[in-house]
Write a sequence for this structure.
């Protein structure tokens, strides 16, 4: 379903007066609004192809309606989100869930929808129909060479799919690990995995990157072979300059200091980017900023400090992706909320008075340091984020537009009560 530009203009017209009041109020308090707005206009977060349908848990999945049934439908839904917030101009595909049947048609559709193809994701955590060897006891770590070879071959094929689409990165998340003490020789599992990753790495095009995504637990519940940032960094350093560590916010043990991990990975120039989501307990894959918005702000605070310290391009030098699952929300509303939360945290981090913070840190003025950070975190930047959307031709209030225009009902009328497979 395509959003008509005229309808967005009408929406903005109706919201302009109130928006102007809010924007003029915050603009009056800041001295770098224009630079801030330009950074927001340039910033984009990729949408995962697997998060456009309703998700579920092992207990139940309460499916929604009007959900995408094909890759084309999924791209249309990402295009719809991007038309409303002009900050979601990329889709991240998962192979084999999203193997294009016609590459040229898919690339033409992406161009029509103003979308790029972000990192492609391999999948050796499920057994596909007709698959020769099972991944029940792992893939690249597996004790059986034939299983490892099958997983290596799959990742090489995923890179080929990505090259054909114009993607520039492969994300490898391995569910490999063990469920019981004694089940696995950790050293051999690491070495098998490294050997497999080295064979995959050797086939990477010169301008590609490989993102090593770590996760503390699930589906294995005793050990995970890429279980934390240290292990992922070990692999990335042993692989070479095109290998980086990907931070999925939900993949940490409780109370992990993720912003410190981010600062150090950037110090090592080994930060790939993110799978943004939020969680209270495990890998809950909840809406970004819905549980720990202050943590999200602190992560962006380290990102802005680290990127500026290295003269990095905020919009393009790291991988910005969402990885969420929608058990009780409309998937598109959930994704609109997630992108909004990311833009708000990024804008607040850009407001931090770096000179004053640096001075407070040098003087160990702990109170002043907290005041400087929380002053930015407590600044309501929503009108500035909306202004960036307005200037980029998108909607002042995407969620309000989505509901007022009854977009979900229009999708149901168009697709019928189709139910898509979400995670
Ligand atoms: C694993 C993960 C990984 C994806 C999968 C869909 O928990 O975060 O990034 O492959 O979710
Ligand atoms: Mn992830």
């Amino acid at each position: 379903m395509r959003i008509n530009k005229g309808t967005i203009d009408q929406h903005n017209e109706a919201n302009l007066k109130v928006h102007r009041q809010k924007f003029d109020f915050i603009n009056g308090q800041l001295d770098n609004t224009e630079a801030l707005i330009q950074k927001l206009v340039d910033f984009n977060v990729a949408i995962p192809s697997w998060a456009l349908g309703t998700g579920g848990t092992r207990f139940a999945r309460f499916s929604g309606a009007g959900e995408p049934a094909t890759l084309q439908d999924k791209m249309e839904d990402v295009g719809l989100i991007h038309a409303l917030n002009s900050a979601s101009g990329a889709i991240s595909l998962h192979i084999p869930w999203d193997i294009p049947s016609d590459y040229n048609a898919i690339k033409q559709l992406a161009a029509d929808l103003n979308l790029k193809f972000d990192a492609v994701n391999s999948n050796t955590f499920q057994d596909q129909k007709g698959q020769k060897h099972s991944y029940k006891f792992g893939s690249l770590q597996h004790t059986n060479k034939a299983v490892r070879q099958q997983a290596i071959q799959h990742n090489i094929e995923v890179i080929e799919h990505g090259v054909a689409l114009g993607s520039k990165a492969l994300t490898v998340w391995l569910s490999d690990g063990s469920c019981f003490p004694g089940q696995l020789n950790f050293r051999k599992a690491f070495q098998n995995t490294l050997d497999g990753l080295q064979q995959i790495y050797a086939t990477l095009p010169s301008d590609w990157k490989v993102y090593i995504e770590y996760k503390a637990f699930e589906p294995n519940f005793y050990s995970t072979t890429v279980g934390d940032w240290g292990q992922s960094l070990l692999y990335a350093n042993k692989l070479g300059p095109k290998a980086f560590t990907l931070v999925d916010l939900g993949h940490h043990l409780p109370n992990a200091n993720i912003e410190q991990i981010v600062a150090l990975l950037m110090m090592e120039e080994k930060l790939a980017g993110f799978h943004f989501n939020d969680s209270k307990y495990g890998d809950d894959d909840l809406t970004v900023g819905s549980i720990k918005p202050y943590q999200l702000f602190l992560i962006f605070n380290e990102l802005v400090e680290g990127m500026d310290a290295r003269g990095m391009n905020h919009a393009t030098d790291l991988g910005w992706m969402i990885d969420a699952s929608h058990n009780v929300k409309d998937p598109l509303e959930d994704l609109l909320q997630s992108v909004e939360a990311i833009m708000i945290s990024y804008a607040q981090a850009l407001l931090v008075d770096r000179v004053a913070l640096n001075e407070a840190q040098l003087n160990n003025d702990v109170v002043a340091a907290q005041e400087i950070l929380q002053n930015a975190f407590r600044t309501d930047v929503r009108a500035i984020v909306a202004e960036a959307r307005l200037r980029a031709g998108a909607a002042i209030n995407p969620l309000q537009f989505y509901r007022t225009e009854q977009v979900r009902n229009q999708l149901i009328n168009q697709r019928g009560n189709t139910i898509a497979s979400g995670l």
